[in-house]
Design a protein that fits this description.
By secondary structure, the chain is α/β, with parallel strands linked by helices. Helix content is 32%, strand content 29%. A hairpin with a 2-residue loop joins strand 8 and strand 9.
Length: 225
């Protein structure tokens, strides 16, 4: 038997990636041991400062909210937050932690989800690098459909991949990650660069600034050009 068609392979990777994050939910907030505590602390400080400068006011949509790490920060500025994630285990942690009535949690696969309204701002953290390049354009089409005419978008992410994760080589976005118990899952990790992302987004009709903050972490914000 030959290799599966490209689209089938992407679907298989996305299914395995979701399985990984569902299984990883209880240990998701653990730090990245490969990075120094100083780098991680500096990254947290700069990422929070960037979010506060962006000020996502009004009705805000958070994509891939995970256990709600950033949801509570969005509430510092937002009137309401709709937080979407495909992993019910992540949403359960978020809902148990964040009881503010301004938050609505939605379980949905972001690759086939359609919004039921428009938002003043869209935010996602550590998600864009997990979107396969084959779905990059369609994902941003979904984001555009979520925005009010003057809506804004912000994201934060990293390009960090360890050598032992690169099971198909440095040129591939397919990686393998492990839970604490050693269980292995394949996932997608696209090593975006700020310049590369700016160009990809410009090609799709977006106007973005993307800035490296510290180490592998970067911040982007913009709107539809």
């Amino acid at each position: 038997m030959g290799a599966p068609p490209a689209e089938d392979r992407v679907e298989q990777l996305l299914a395995e990636q979701l399985a990984y994050y569902r299984a990883r939910a209880p240990e998701y907030t653990d730090s990245m041991p490969e990075l120094s505590a100083e780098v991680q602390a500096e990254a947290a400080r700069k990422l929070l400062a960037a979010l506060d400068t962006f000020r996502p006011t009004g009705d805000v949509l958070e994509l891939a909210c995970g256990p709600g790490t950033w949801t509570s920060r969005l509430l510092d500025h937002a009137a309401t937050v709709t937080a979407v994630d495909a992993a019910p285990e992540m949403l359960a942690i978020a809902a148990a932690t964040i009881t503010d009535q301004r938050v609505r949690f939605v379980e949905a696969n972001l690759f086939d989800w359609e919004p039921d309204r428009r938002y003043d701002a869209v935010f996602f953290a550590f998600w864009l690098s997990h979107v396969p390049l084959e779905r990059f354009a369609s994902f941003w089409s979904t984001v555009a459909g979520c925005l009010t005419p003057n809506g804004r978008v912000a994201f934060l992410d990293d390009a960090y991949r360890t050598a032992d994760e690169l099971i198909e080589g440095d040129g591939s976005s397919t990686i393998r990650r492990h839970l604490k118990d050693g269980t292995a899952f394949r996932a997608i990790k696209v090593p975006h660069t700020p310049d590369g992302l700016r160009q990809r987004l410009a090609d799709l009709g977006w106007s973005f600034t993307v800035t490296n903050l510290v180490g592998p972490f970067f911040w982007g914000e913009g709107n539809k050009a």
